[in-house]
Amino acid sequence: MDWTSAQSTSASFPLWVRVRFLPWICAIVFLIVTSGCAHYPINQPLRQSPPQVEYRAKNFKHVGKDDDLLVMLTFSGGGTRAAAFSYGVLEALRDTEISIRGRKKCMLDEVDWISGVSGGSFTAAYYGLFGDRIFEDFESRFLKKNIQGELIRGILFNPVNWAKLSSPYYDRSDLAADYYDKQVFDHGTFGDILARGGAMIVINATDMVHGTRFSFIQDPFDAICSDLGSFSVARACAASSAVPVVLSPLTLRNYAGKCGFQLPPGLAEAMQPPRDVTSRRFDLANNMLPFLDSQKKPYIHLVDGGVADNLGLRAVLERVTLMGDPWTTLKYANLESARKIVFVVANAETEVDTKWDRIETNPPFGVKLASYSSIAIERYNTDTVALLSESFNRWADEIRKGRCGSSKITTEPGSCGDIEFYLVEVKFDALDDEAERHYFKQLPTSFVLKPEEVDKLRDAARRILTKSKEFQRLVNDLQ
């Protein structure tokens, strides 16, 4: 159609029609133009280091918690399945009554620290922001809501989002983060978690370029001269659950070198070449080097935390390694009085599909992709748990030496050498029924499950935790 014919066609519409729809046409054009310039929210720079709001372990006061008991939870990735499973762990801890120094309380009130990955990060973050409110509305706001469907509808049927997504600076994970911010987390920030004074929450993602774990705590934000206190919890969870290919990376600005940040002496020392060229501490410390140069790395693109660590346990292991030993780590966090150190690991693991062992034809691409990721995650999970368990005896000796100094080391209750570790694994393999294990491992890792599936996951987590011999040992020792 040429311009002349277009004019004649336009003129054929009655005047009242053109007048009536003109505001709508103008509004749509305005939305397209303005939304097409959409940009992800930029993490705020630090003017000076350290920041006024320091989201660090040592600044969580642990009010009302027993100094002798340190309880740490880790929630694995796995979509709503992982979120529901970890929620069941919180329910079981809430319902477990313990007695400390003659005072009865629930185990959940003693939780000091929670590390979350992907799906598990949502449960951790919600509890960190709202505490026991999680038992009132987390099911309706997240677990039993079709989050995946809501996001898809937002992409397919909302013209404003079409325009936003046309911007090169705004993608699917940014859209998801905006949804979580409004519909799940009520615009909560890490500063809000710190101000509430409950458990410290660590959300974990993965640097897309270097493959290193990136935790949302102030220490790495110091290195990039950015303020975590004002950072959206929703964006951290969106980064932690940004499954490669399915969702886009989430981007941070790197302002390194602009706030006067100085490497802590221990970290600077760890970066020096060791005598042992295989030093794990040296390797971990030097993983930070790219982040310290904002000229070479002005942007940090984050993807699913499960790529680097699907359990959230490496946040502890690597922290202890970087600090040099567990005693130094405890002192830094003002937790040197701890005598019982508890790890509860909620692992919403998947199951490898073995049917392809019996089929000659080449498996389709989707099956191969799922298999590659499942195998890598499962093997890495096994190694991580084994590494933690094998570290306990060495850590106990190092804590005794640090606490007792030149005094005689004894392990009597209340003495300087009194230290005990507990590792409680909450995983589907603990279920006796093979069909039940298979059922849970085959549930999808998307962000939508049937309400009855959510309830079954919660119940399974409660049963597994309460029947755990290691958990029963802990409860008995506390009595």
Rg measurement, Å: 25 Å
Work out the helicity level: 40-55%
- Main pleated sheet: 8 strands, mixed
Q: How many beta-strand elements?
A: 10
How would you spell out the order of helices and strands?
HHEHEEEHHHHHHEEHHEHHEHHEHEHHH
Q: Strand-residue fraction?
A: 5-15%
Q: Label the structural class.
A: alpha/beta
> Terminal Cα separation, in Å?
85 Å
Which shape, going by the Cα principal axes?
Answer: globular
Flag low-confidence runs. 1-11
H/I helix tally: 19
Mean pLDDT: 89
Explained architecture:
The structure is a single chain. This protein is an alpha/beta fold. Helices cover 47% and strands 12% of the residues. The strands form two sheets. Strands 1, 4, 5, 6, 7, 8, 9 and 10 form an eight-stranded mixed sheet that branches. Strands 2-3 form a two-stranded antiparallel sheet. Strand 5 and strand 6 form a beta hairpin. Helix 3 crosses helix 18 and helix 8 packs across helix 11.
Question: What are the main properties of this structure?
Answer:
479 residues; 19 helices; 47% helix; globular
